[in-house]
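sorry to bug you again but im stuck and you know this stuff better than me. below you get a single protein, a line of residues and a line of whole numbers that encode the local backbone shape. mainly i need to know what kind of three dimensional shape the backbone takes. anything you notice is useful, everything is just below:

***
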Amino acid sequence: MPIGRVKWFSLEKGFGFISSEEGEDVYLAASALPSGVPTVKPGTKLEFGVAEGRRGPQALSVRIIDEPASVVANTRINADDLATIIEDSIKMLDKVGNGLRHGRYPTSTEAERLGKVLRGIAGQIEG
């Protein structure tokens, strides 16, 4: 399985990119992260499978090998950034709520993504 490091990852957007040891950029969807892991920091070393996606290589079955050392454990993100993430998650929840009012449940992918975002927000708020 290929190994690489996280270039960047956005909890808000639900994706990021890995720089593989072969020098290739690999798309990293939030759904590919291990269960219970809502986000990863830049520099985190990962092992992952690869599938060819619509826009190029995409990581699958990600396993965290090593996380970069943190100066402060559980560092909170900037309050303005967290406020923006919360506002965007409210929009996501409104969309799901409106769908439910019309008898439409979210797809498993949508539900999984929303769960990861909410768990990530909870972790930031709990500090």
About this structure: DSSP finds two helices and five strands in the chain. The radius of gyration is 16 Å.
